[in-house]
Amino acid sequence: MAESMEGVVTEVEQPNTENVEEKTVSEIRSNFALLERAVAQFDTRFTLRALRSISSLRKKLTDRVLCTVIVVTYSAKNPTARLLIQAVGMEAEDLKAVADQHKDAVQALKNSTKEPLPEVDVYIGILLQVYLYDQQDYEEGAEFSTQLVDRIRELNRRTLDSLAAKAYFYFSLFHEELDPKPPSKQSQVITIRGKLLAALRSAVLRKDLDTQASVTTLLLRNYLSTADITQADLLVAQTQFPENAPNNQVARYLYYLGRIRAIQLSYTDAHEHLISATRKAPSNSVAAGFYQASMKLLIVVELLMGDIPERELFSQPRLERTLEPYFRLVQAVRAGDLPSFLKIVQNSAKAFHRDGTYTLILRLRQNVIKTGIRVLSLSYSRISLRDICLRLGLESEESAEYIVAKAIRDGVIEASIDHEKGFMQTKQAGDIYATREPGEAFHERIRACLTLHDECVKAMRYPMNQHRLELKNAQEARERERELAKEIQEGDLDDDDAAGDFDGL
Amino acid sequence: MAERELADLLKQLHKTLQSKQYQQAGSILSRAKIALLGLNALIPTESTPSKHLQLARETLELGAVISIRLQDPVSFTRYFQQLQPFYALPEDKLPRKGSNASKITGLYLLLLLSDGDYAGFHTLLETLEVAAAQAGRGLEDDQFIQYPIRLEQALMEGSYDQVWRQTKGSNAPSEEFALFSDVLIGTIRKEIASCSEKAYPSIPISDAKSLLFLESEGSVVNFAKESGWVVKDGRIYFPQEDGEFASKDILVTSDQVIENTLGYARELETIV
User: Mind telling me how many Å the CA of A14 is from chain B's nearest CA?
Assistant: First the structure.
């Protein structure tokens, strides 16, 4: 009785889920065609397109879909297929059901002698990694990823490069999730460093920009996760990040670089890197986490440099909530209010620890004092050291005198101290427009605009060998162009899907 | 065999440390290190037994302390680096008990501080902070680590009187820390001098004495001479620098302006 009841229920639901499944399977298989074309024409654009669709496929991946794809792609005796099926971890009975369902396709495969390309193997491998990651099956995923990247290394095909970058990405992600998690010194991430470094070395030797960029950022992330900042710094010093790396990788790299520099107190460098990182961050909602993280760091670095971030920054919808403690922090620094600064640090210590900005924020103490002094020097032409001490909540008048003297030397304020009478006298500020400072600022801006123009010119893309094709066959060339246009259009529409590491064109 | 020998050597080392005969310690240390090599425990490996690891850590820590006593920063840094893999070992392999990790690390932080290597100081601090968060205890409770942190904070914000008070003998958490005081006071004196030049037009010598933490007025006069200050009628006059505005006058730099404008013209040409 119960069985038949179940049967009834499934009968109602089945067409629906099956439809989705079938559609997903055919979508995946159409990507294989793209991969084949990429290999035949030696053009990575097709590979990138196949990779781009992963994010939309991601939500529809199930063990059944994956098994179906494997069953209809490989002949039954293929060793790769065996390995892949094993990794999916499906029950033997269900597997059989899947195979039965696609009997025709399986039969057809038996007759054909064509073996699938290694690119297809790896592509399915990446889909599997995504699936396992979403299932939170980290152990299995880590093991499978290790096999996958080893195989990619063995194959050594240039058409695999962009796929390899993705495979390494998940490889490292899985290991991060294994216990004990970083920053423990026994964490698994430390053991994969050798493998990543080897991958980086061969990527550089083979001029494989995608993998090089991806593995460099992974290594930096790896080092920073266990707070090995010196090693990360050395890696940056010893390697060269590819200039033409995918945008998202550049953003990541700049973020990590900004972090390292901020810890090392070179705030100007850190600021520059973080500004670029936040600007290069994808603007869609998928990468909001990255944007938030880099924004938080940027705000702290700006404060450390003595600047106050703009108010409107905090009212952006995707930043508003998570930046709340930072907003209050900025307010305290802006007012030069030491007691309330200390209170905020104490209250939000947990959030700051989580964001990894706590130690940086502790350094802000001196900035709060400096701002306080600056505010005082702007509002009073003469003020006694005793009053300064009271207003800033300092411990003693002596401290106040030293602090003010330091502020004068560092150029925070223009003033002098009268030691015997114990007061600070503000100097009259000169007319800044009589100096060359405005001219310098103007020059700086013009230079920035010119560099922007140069970069735009450099960033334009010229399809390879286009002119030769045109000579050979004008008709074919036109068709290609039409396709290109369509792709660009799709690329725009697909913006939401571009959560992956690769942007379209 | 080698283990017994090492234990003996360590006992001797403790003795020399107590009797403050650091010169002898050097030769004992090198014998101890050879013994460690014999045990294959100078660098921790998977198979090194926990007992040997403890001995190795103790030897290296003693070495570090002795180098500090001998005021040999280079060898201290070397010992500190050698100790790092030991400190990274998990608790069940090498128990924290009996370890001087925080003391040695605190000393190293202080060394970085007295060298003025603030980047190194903060890099190490970040690592410590993460490790402490991992272990579930704050750095705040660790007096050896807090001491250099407090000093750094005071130095950065400019409360030099705080630094002065902290470095005075009894405030340091242990004898070894006090050894850095002279260097640090030298540093702050230089800082104060450069601040005073800018902040005061002139100052009485007696005030300068307390300001610079100097012993007598005579040493103030000497210090002033070294810094190139003018001493007249019981006051110190600091050299006034003038014309900061003048150097930035637009007319003086007209050639710079011309050069820039020509540059723009050239760039525009390439764009159009």
Answer: 49
Gap between the Cα atoms of B103 and B125, Å rounded: 14
- Strand, coil or helix: A383: strand
Are B245 and A434 in contact (CB < 8 Å)? yes
- B235-237: strand order across its sheet: B202-204, B235-237, B230-232
For residue A358, the surrounding DSSP H or E stretch is: helix A358-362
Q: Environment class of residue A421 by beta-carbon count within 10 Å: exposed (0-12), middle (13-18) or buried (19+)?
A: exposed
CA distances from residue A293 to A270, A275, B24 in whole angstroms, order as listed: 14, 12, 54
d(C-alpha B187, C-alpha B71), whole Å: 17
Per-residue pLDDT of A445-460, as tens digits, reads 998 998 888 888 887 7
Q: Which residue has the tokens 């083979």?
A: A206
Nearest CA of chain B to the CA of A400: how many Å?
7
Q: What is the pLDDT of residues A158-192, one digit of tens each?
A: 888 888 999 999 999 999 888 777 777 778 888 89
CA separation for the pair A141, A128 (Å, rounded): 8
Q: Which helix (H) or strand (E) holds A230?
A: helix A229-238
* DSSP summary character for residue A427: P
Sign of CA dihedral B7, B9, B14, B15: positive
Give the model's pLDDT for residue B53.
Answer: 84
Residue A118 confidence (pLDDT): 85
Query: Which regions of chain A are under pLDDT 70?
Result: 1-17, 111-113, 429-430, 462-473, 491-505
Burial of A51 (0-12, 13-18, 19+ CB in 10 A): buried
CA-atom Rg of chain A in angstroms:
29
Please check whether residue A226 touches B, CB under 8 A: yes
Domains of chain B: 1-93 (1.25.40.990)
CB contact under 8 A, B122 and A359: yes
Residue in A closest to B257 by C-alpha: A439
Question: In the prediction, which pLDDT does A13 show?
Answer: 45
pLDDT tens digits along B4-20: 777 888 888 777 777 77
Own/partner pairs for B233-241, CB < 8 Å, 24+ apart?
Answer: B234/B204, B234/B205, B234/B206, B235/B202, B235/B203, B235/B204, B235/B205, B236/B202, B236/B203, B236/B204, B236/B205, B236/B208, B237/B201, B237/B202, B238/B196, B238/B197, B238/B200, B238/B201, B238/B202, B238/B203, B239/B197, B240/B201
A349 CB near a chain B CB, below 8 Å?
A: no
- A388, A406, A416: which to substitute to probe chain B, counting the most B Cβ within 10 Å? A406
Q: Is B119 on the interface with A (CB under 8 A)?
A: yes
Asked if B216 and B207 count as a contact pair (C-beta separation under 8 A), the reply is no
Write out residues 230-249 of B within 8 Å (CB-CB) of A.
245, 248-249
